[in-house]
Design brief:
It contains 14 helices and 14 strands. The strands form two sheets. An eight-stranded mixed β-sheet has the order 5-4-3-2-1-6-8-7, with helices on both faces. It is an enzyme of class 2 (transferase).
Protein backbone atom coordinates (compact mmCIF):
# COMPACT_ATOMS: atom_id res chain seq x y z
CA UNK A 1 0.00 0.00 0.00
CA UNK A 2 1.42 3.35 -1.07
CA UNK A 3 0.53 6.75 0.40
CA UNK A 4 1.26 10.08 -1.30
CA UNK A 5 2.03 12.84 1.19
CA UNK A 6 1.35 16.41 0.01
CA UNK A 7 2.52 19.60 1.76
CA UNK A 8 1.34 22.70 -0.10
CA UNK A 9 2.70 26.19 0.42
CA UNK A 10 1.47 29.34 -1.26
CA UNK A 11 3.81 28.90 -4.26
CA UNK A 12 5.47 25.57 -3.50
CA UNK A 13 4.64 21.92 -2.95
CA UNK A 14 6.65 19.20 -1.19
CA UNK A 15 5.73 15.56 -1.67
CA UNK A 16 6.74 12.00 -0.83
CA UNK A 17 5.44 8.66 -2.01
CA UNK A 18 5.84 6.15 0.83
CA UNK A 19 5.48 2.38 0.61
CA UNK A 20 3.75 1.58 3.91
CA UNK A 21 4.76 -2.08 3.84
CA UNK A 22 8.27 -1.11 4.96
CA UNK A 23 7.72 2.66 5.43
CA UNK A 24 10.22 3.38 2.66
CA UNK A 25 10.16 6.69 0.79
CA UNK A 26 10.05 5.63 -2.86
CA UNK A 27 10.29 9.19 -4.17
CA UNK A 28 10.41 12.69 -2.77
CA UNK A 29 10.20 15.98 -4.51
CA UNK A 30 9.76 19.72 -4.45
CA UNK A 31 7.79 21.95 -6.81
CA UNK A 32 8.78 25.62 -6.70
CA UNK A 33 7.52 28.89 -8.14
CA UNK A 34 3.94 27.75 -8.72
CA UNK A 35 2.10 30.60 -10.47
CA UNK A 36 5.40 32.40 -10.98
CA UNK A 37 7.70 32.50 -13.99
CA UNK A 38 10.36 29.78 -13.81
CA UNK A 39 8.28 26.94 -12.29
CA UNK A 40 10.31 23.80 -11.65
CA UNK A 41 9.77 20.29 -10.25
CA UNK A 42 12.70 18.34 -8.76
CA UNK A 43 12.22 14.67 -7.86
CA UNK A 44 14.71 12.43 -6.06
CA UNK A 45 14.65 8.64 -6.20
CA UNK A 46 17.27 6.48 -4.49
CA UNK A 47 19.79 5.22 -7.03
CA UNK A 48 18.67 7.57 -9.81
CA UNK A 49 19.74 11.01 -10.99
CA UNK A 50 17.56 13.96 -10.00
CA UNK A 51 14.58 14.33 -12.31
CA UNK A 52 13.95 17.98 -13.13
CA UNK A 53 10.91 19.30 -14.99
CA UNK A 54 10.84 22.95 -16.03
CA UNK A 55 7.34 23.78 -17.18
CA UNK A 56 4.91 26.62 -16.54
CA UNK A 57 2.53 25.83 -13.66
CA UNK A 58 -0.18 28.43 -13.35
CA UNK A 59 -1.68 26.83 -10.23
CA UNK A 60 -1.45 23.89 -7.80
CA UNK A 61 -3.57 21.70 -10.05
CA UNK A 62 -0.87 21.99 -12.71
CA UNK A 63 1.79 21.24 -10.09
CA UNK A 64 0.05 18.10 -8.79
CA UNK A 65 -0.58 16.91 -12.36
CA UNK A 66 3.18 17.12 -12.99
CA UNK A 67 3.91 15.36 -9.67
CA UNK A 68 1.69 12.45 -10.70
CA UNK A 69 3.28 12.36 -14.15
CA UNK A 70 6.75 12.29 -12.56
CA UNK A 71 5.79 9.41 -10.29
CA UNK A 72 4.61 7.27 -13.23
CA UNK A 73 7.29 8.43 -15.70
CA UNK A 74 8.65 5.40 -17.58
CA UNK A 75 12.30 6.27 -16.93
CA UNK A 76 12.24 8.37 -13.77
CA UNK A 77 9.11 7.26 -11.94
CA UNK A 78 8.55 4.64 -9.23
CA UNK A 79 5.04 3.31 -10.00
CA UNK A 80 3.37 2.07 -13.17
CA UNK A 81 0.04 3.84 -12.69
CA UNK A 82 -1.81 6.17 -10.34
CA UNK A 83 -3.93 3.20 -9.27
CA UNK A 84 -1.00 2.16 -7.06
CA UNK A 85 -1.59 5.23 -4.85
CA UNK A 86 -3.97 4.02 -2.13
CA UNK A 87 -4.51 7.39 -0.42
CA UNK A 88 -3.25 10.95 -0.15
CA UNK A 89 -2.28 12.51 3.18
CA UNK A 90 -2.37 16.31 3.28
CA UNK A 91 -0.51 18.42 5.78
CA UNK A 92 -2.91 21.08 7.07
CA UNK A 93 -1.42 23.65 9.42
CA UNK A 94 -4.47 24.64 11.48
CA UNK A 95 -7.37 22.53 12.67
CA UNK A 96 -8.60 24.96 15.32
CA UNK A 97 -10.31 23.44 18.35
CA UNK A 98 -12.40 21.07 16.25
CA UNK A 99 -9.67 18.62 15.22
CA UNK A 100 -7.53 16.93 17.85
CA UNK A 101 -6.61 14.10 15.52
CA UNK A 102 -6.31 13.43 11.80
CA UNK A 103 -9.50 12.96 9.77
CA UNK A 104 -10.74 11.65 6.41
CA UNK A 105 -11.56 14.66 4.23
CA UNK A 106 -15.17 15.31 3.26
CA UNK A 107 -17.22 18.45 2.57
CA UNK A 108 -17.68 19.18 6.29
CA UNK A 109 -13.94 18.88 6.94
CA UNK A 110 -13.16 21.21 4.05
CA UNK A 111 -15.62 23.77 5.38
CA UNK A 112 -13.98 23.60 8.82
CA UNK A 113 -10.51 24.01 7.33
CA UNK A 114 -11.76 27.12 5.53
CA UNK A 115 -13.13 28.46 8.83
CA UNK A 116 -9.54 28.33 10.11
CA UNK A 117 -8.28 30.56 7.27
CA UNK A 118 -8.38 33.54 9.65
CA UNK A 119 -6.17 31.66 12.12
CA UNK A 120 -3.59 30.59 9.51
CA UNK A 121 -4.01 32.97 6.55
CA UNK A 122 -0.65 32.08 4.99
CA UNK A 123 -0.98 28.31 5.24
CA UNK A 124 -4.54 26.93 5.35
CA UNK A 125 -5.62 28.49 2.03
CA UNK A 126 -2.62 26.87 0.30
CA UNK A 127 -3.35 23.55 2.02
CA UNK A 128 -6.94 23.73 0.77
CA UNK A 129 -5.81 24.47 -2.78
CA UNK A 130 -3.75 21.28 -2.67
CA UNK A 131 -6.68 19.24 -1.37
CA UNK A 132 -9.03 20.49 -4.10
CA UNK A 133 -6.44 19.96 -6.82
CA UNK A 134 -5.89 16.34 -5.72
CA UNK A 135 -9.63 15.74 -5.57
CA UNK A 136 -10.01 16.92 -9.18
CA UNK A 137 -7.15 14.78 -10.45
CA UNK A 138 -7.75 11.74 -8.19
CA UNK A 139 -11.51 11.76 -7.54
CA UNK A 140 -11.68 8.13 -6.36
CA UNK A 141 -8.65 8.23 -4.05
CA UNK A 142 -9.34 8.78 -0.31
CA UNK A 143 -7.84 11.94 1.19
CA UNK A 144 -6.81 12.55 4.80
CA UNK A 145 -6.02 15.83 6.60
CA UNK A 146 -3.24 15.72 9.19
CA UNK A 147 -3.12 18.89 11.29
CA UNK A 148 -0.01 20.56 12.75
CA UNK A 149 -2.12 21.67 15.71
CA UNK A 150 -3.78 18.31 16.48
CA UNK A 151 -1.07 16.83 18.73
CA UNK A 152 -1.44 19.80 21.08
CA UNK A 153 -5.18 19.27 21.49
CA UNK A 154 -4.44 17.51 24.78
CA UNK A 155 -3.13 20.66 26.50
CA UNK A 156 -5.09 21.59 29.65
CA UNK A 157 -6.93 24.89 29.92
CA UNK A 158 -4.36 26.39 32.27
CA UNK A 159 -1.72 25.86 29.56
CA UNK A 160 -3.65 27.00 26.50
CA UNK A 161 -5.73 29.94 27.76
CA UNK A 162 -4.39 33.49 27.83
CA UNK A 163 -5.21 35.89 30.66
CA UNK A 164 -7.48 37.95 28.42
CA UNK A 165 -11.24 38.49 28.78
CA UNK A 166 -12.72 35.00 28.51
CA UNK A 167 -15.24 36.25 25.95
CA UNK A 168 -12.41 36.66 23.41
CA UNK A 169 -11.72 32.94 23.66
CA UNK A 170 -15.41 32.10 23.29
CA UNK A 171 -16.02 34.54 20.43
CA UNK A 172 -12.77 34.57 18.46
CA UNK A 173 -11.00 31.38 19.56
CA UNK A 174 -8.04 33.29 20.98
CA UNK A 175 -5.94 30.66 22.76
CA UNK A 176 -2.67 28.78 22.40
CA UNK A 177 -2.84 26.17 19.62
CA UNK A 178 0.77 25.18 19.09
CA UNK A 179 2.41 23.96 15.88
CA UNK A 180 5.00 21.44 14.62
CA UNK A 181 2.71 18.81 16.14
CA UNK A 182 3.60 16.00 13.72
CA UNK A 183 7.31 16.53 14.44
CA UNK A 184 6.87 16.58 18.23
CA UNK A 185 4.71 13.46 18.01
CA UNK A 186 7.22 11.56 15.87
CA UNK A 187 10.37 12.33 17.84
CA UNK A 188 8.76 11.75 21.26
CA UNK A 189 7.48 8.34 20.13
CA UNK A 190 10.86 7.49 18.59
CA UNK A 191 12.62 8.60 21.79
CA UNK A 192 10.54 6.15 23.83
CA UNK A 193 11.38 3.36 21.37
CA UNK A 194 15.11 4.16 21.54
CA UNK A 195 14.97 4.13 25.35
CA UNK A 196 13.05 0.86 25.34
CA UNK A 197 10.37 2.43 27.51
CA UNK A 198 6.60 2.87 27.29
CA UNK A 199 5.95 6.49 26.32
CA UNK A 200 3.09 6.54 28.84
CA UNK A 201 5.71 6.29 31.59
CA UNK A 202 7.94 9.11 30.31
CA UNK A 203 8.29 12.88 30.55
CA UNK A 204 9.97 14.15 27.39
CA UNK A 205 10.88 17.65 26.22
CA UNK A 206 11.14 17.85 22.43
CA UNK A 207 13.05 20.74 20.83
CA UNK A 208 12.16 21.33 17.15
CA UNK A 209 14.87 23.83 16.24
CA UNK A 210 14.98 25.23 12.74
CA UNK A 211 14.25 28.59 11.16
CA UNK A 212 10.95 28.13 12.97
CA UNK A 213 11.46 26.71 16.44
CA UNK A 214 9.21 25.29 19.13
CA UNK A 215 9.48 23.14 22.23
CA UNK A 216 6.91 20.72 23.59
CA UNK A 217 6.35 19.10 26.99
CA UNK A 218 5.21 15.53 26.33
CA UNK A 219 3.95 13.83 29.47
CA UNK A 220 2.81 10.21 29.32
CA UNK A 221 2.67 10.41 25.53
CA UNK A 222 0.58 13.58 25.15
CA UNK A 223 1.36 17.26 24.72
CA UNK A 224 0.74 19.25 27.91
CA UNK A 225 2.38 22.49 26.79
CA UNK A 226 4.21 23.94 23.80
CA UNK A 227 6.03 27.19 23.12
CA UNK A 228 4.24 28.40 19.96
CA UNK A 229 0.84 29.90 20.66
CA UNK A 230 -2.14 31.49 18.89
CA UNK A 231 0.28 31.84 15.96
CA UNK A 232 3.80 30.49 15.30
CA UNK A 233 5.15 33.88 16.46
CA UNK A 234 5.02 33.05 20.18
CA UNK A 235 7.77 31.18 22.01
CA UNK A 236 11.54 31.15 21.66
CA UNK A 237 13.48 33.46 19.35
CA UNK A 238 13.67 31.99 15.83
CA UNK A 239 15.21 32.69 12.44
CA UNK A 240 13.12 35.77 11.67
CA UNK A 241 10.41 35.65 14.38
CA UNK A 242 10.83 37.51 17.64
CA UNK A 243 9.21 34.97 19.97
CA UNK A 244 7.90 36.18 23.32
CA UNK A 245 7.96 39.95 23.81
CA UNK A 246 6.07 42.48 25.89
CA UNK A 247 2.84 43.02 23.88
CA UNK A 248 3.01 46.74 24.65
CA UNK A 249 5.94 46.92 22.22
CA UNK A 250 3.42 46.54 19.38
CA UNK A 251 1.42 49.67 20.26
CA UNK A 252 4.64 51.53 21.13
CA UNK A 253 6.04 50.87 17.64
CA UNK A 254 2.78 51.94 16.03
CA UNK A 255 2.81 55.23 17.95
CA UNK A 256 6.51 56.08 17.99
CA UNK A 257 7.59 54.67 14.60
CA UNK A 258 4.28 55.29 12.82
CA UNK A 259 4.05 51.68 11.72
CA UNK A 260 0.79 50.20 10.45
CA UNK A 261 -0.66 46.90 11.68
CA UNK A 262 0.74 45.11 8.64
CA UNK A 263 4.16 46.74 9.04
CA UNK A 264 4.43 45.70 12.70
CA UNK A 265 3.33 42.18 11.80
CA UNK A 266 5.97 42.07 9.07
CA UNK A 267 8.67 43.35 11.44
CA UNK A 268 7.89 40.78 14.15
CA UNK A 269 7.55 37.83 11.76
CA UNK A 270 10.13 38.51 9.06
CA UNK A 271 12.73 40.97 10.37
CA UNK A 272 13.29 39.89 13.97
CA UNK A 273 14.72 36.79 15.67
CA UNK A 274 18.37 35.97 15.06
CA UNK A 275 18.21 37.94 11.80
CA UNK A 276 17.16 41.08 13.66
CA UNK A 277 19.78 40.69 16.38
CA UNK A 278 22.70 39.67 14.14
CA UNK A 279 21.88 41.90 11.18
CA UNK A 280 23.46 39.17 9.06
CA UNK A 281 21.07 36.36 8.20
CA UNK A 282 18.32 34.06 9.43
CA UNK A 283 20.44 31.07 8.39
CA UNK A 284 22.20 29.70 11.44
CA UNK A 285 25.14 28.52 9.33
CA UNK A 286 25.87 32.11 8.30
CA UNK A 287 25.48 33.35 11.87
CA UNK A 288 27.74 30.63 13.28
CA UNK A 289 30.39 31.43 10.66
CA UNK A 290 30.28 35.12 11.61
CA UNK A 291 30.30 34.33 15.34
CA UNK A 292 32.99 31.65 15.45
CA UNK A 293 35.26 32.51 12.52
CA UNK A 294 34.93 36.29 12.29
CA UNK A 295 34.33 37.25 15.92
CA UNK A 296 31.16 39.17 15.08
CA UNK A 297 29.71 40.32 18.41
CA UNK A 298 26.11 40.63 17.27
CA UNK A 299 26.19 37.18 15.71
CA UNK A 300 27.50 35.81 19.01
CA UNK A 301 24.73 37.67 20.85
CA UNK A 302 22.05 36.29 18.52
CA UNK A 303 23.17 32.72 19.24
CA UNK A 304 23.29 33.35 23.00
CA UNK A 305 19.75 34.76 23.00
CA UNK A 306 18.46 31.80 20.94
CA UNK A 307 20.13 29.31 23.29
CA UNK A 308 19.05 31.14 26.45
CA UNK A 309 15.38 31.09 25.42
CA UNK A 310 15.54 27.37 24.71
CA UNK A 311 17.36 26.62 27.98
CA UNK A 312 14.86 28.53 30.10
CA UNK A 313 11.91 26.90 28.30
CA UNK A 314 13.38 23.46 29.00
CA UNK A 315 13.55 24.43 32.68
CA UNK A 316 9.95 25.66 32.63
CA UNK A 317 8.67 22.44 31.06
CA UNK A 318 10.57 20.30 33.55
CA UNK A 319 8.72 22.25 36.26
CA UNK A 320 5.38 21.89 34.43
CA UNK A 321 5.74 18.10 34.24
CA UNK A 322 7.28 17.62 37.67
CA UNK A 323 10.52 16.36 36.17
CA UNK A 324 11.95 15.16 32.86
CA UNK A 325 13.33 11.85 31.62
CA UNK A 326 14.61 12.86 28.19
CA UNK A 327 15.36 15.93 26.07
CA UNK A 328 15.25 15.54 22.27
CA UNK A 329 16.75 17.79 19.60
CA UNK A 330 15.36 17.70 16.06
CA UNK A 331 14.88 19.71 12.82
CA UNK A 332 17.57 21.56 10.88
CA UNK A 333 19.47 23.23 13.73
CA UNK A 334 18.59 20.62 16.34
CA UNK A 335 19.84 17.76 14.16
CA UNK A 336 22.92 19.49 12.76
CA UNK A 337 24.13 21.93 15.43
CA UNK A 338 26.40 20.28 18.02
CA UNK A 339 27.51 23.63 19.46
CA UNK A 340 23.90 24.84 19.77
CA UNK A 341 22.80 21.63 21.50
CA UNK A 342 25.67 21.89 23.97
CA UNK A 343 24.91 25.51 24.81
CA UNK A 344 21.17 24.83 25.15
CA UNK A 345 21.88 22.25 27.88
CA UNK A 346 24.72 24.16 29.53
CA UNK A 347 23.73 24.99 33.11
CA UNK A 348 21.03 22.33 33.29
CA UNK A 349 23.25 19.82 35.07
CA UNK A 350 21.10 20.32 38.17
CA UNK A 351 18.27 18.59 36.27
CA UNK A 352 20.47 15.54 35.82
CA UNK A 353 21.61 16.02 32.20
CA UNK A 354 25.14 16.57 30.92
CA UNK A 355 26.45 16.52 27.35
CA UNK A 356 28.99 13.94 26.18
CA UNK A 357 31.09 16.09 23.82
CA UNK A 358 32.27 13.14 21.75
CA UNK A 359 28.80 11.63 21.35
CA UNK A 360 27.41 15.08 20.56
CA UNK A 361 29.67 15.35 17.50
CA UNK A 362 26.92 14.05 15.22
CA UNK A 363 24.66 15.41 12.52
CA UNK A 364 21.39 13.99 11.25
CA UNK A 365 21.53 10.61 13.03
CA UNK A 366 19.72 9.10 16.00
CA UNK A 367 22.11 9.17 18.92
CA UNK A 368 22.16 9.63 22.67
CA UNK A 369 24.37 12.63 23.40
CA UNK A 370 24.24 12.65 27.20
CA UNK A 371 26.97 11.19 29.41
CA UNK A 372 26.58 7.63 30.61
CA UNK A 373 24.74 7.42 33.92
CA UNK A 374 22.80 10.68 33.52
CA UNK A 375 19.34 10.55 35.06
CA UNK A 376 18.03 12.69 32.20
CA UNK A 377 18.93 11.45 28.73
CA UNK A 378 19.56 13.75 25.76
CA UNK A 379 19.09 12.61 22.16
CA UNK A 380 19.40 13.75 18.57
CA UNK A 381 16.48 12.30 16.58
CA UNK A 382 15.90 13.38 12.97
CA UNK A 383 12.25 14.23 12.44
CA UNK A 384 10.03 12.61 9.81
CA UNK A 385 6.77 14.54 9.58
CA UNK A 386 5.88 12.94 6.25
CA UNK A 387 5.95 9.48 7.82
CA UNK A 388 3.59 10.62 10.60
CA UNK A 389 1.19 11.92 7.94
CA UNK A 390 1.44 8.65 6.01
CA UNK A 391 0.89 6.54 9.13
CA UNK A 392 -2.20 8.51 10.15
CA UNK A 393 -3.52 8.31 6.60
CA UNK A 394 -3.06 4.55 6.42
CA UNK A 395 -4.70 4.02 9.81
CA UNK A 396 -7.78 6.05 8.84
CA UNK A 397 -8.35 4.52 5.42
CA UNK A 398 -8.04 1.02 6.90
CA UNK A 399 -10.98 1.86 9.14
Amino acid sequence: MKVLVINCGSSSLKYQLIDMVNEEALAQGLVERIGIEGSVLTQKVEGKDKYIVKEEMKDHKDAIRLVLEALVDENNGVIKSMDEISAVGHRVVHGGEKYKESVVINDEVKANIEECFKLAPLHNPANMIGIKACEELMPNTPMVAVFDTAFHGTMPEDAYLYALPYELYEKDGIRKYGFHGTSHKYVSQTCAEVMGRDIKDLKIITCHLGNGASLCAVKNGVSVDTSMGFTPLEGVAMGTRCGNIDPAIVTFLMKEEGLSVDEVNDLLNKKSGVLGISGISSDFRDIEDAAFNKGNRRAQLALRIFEYKIRTTIGAYAAAMGGVDAIVFTAGVGENGPETREKCLEGLEFLGVEIDKEANNVRGKIREISKAGCNVKAFVIPTNEELVIARDTLELIKK
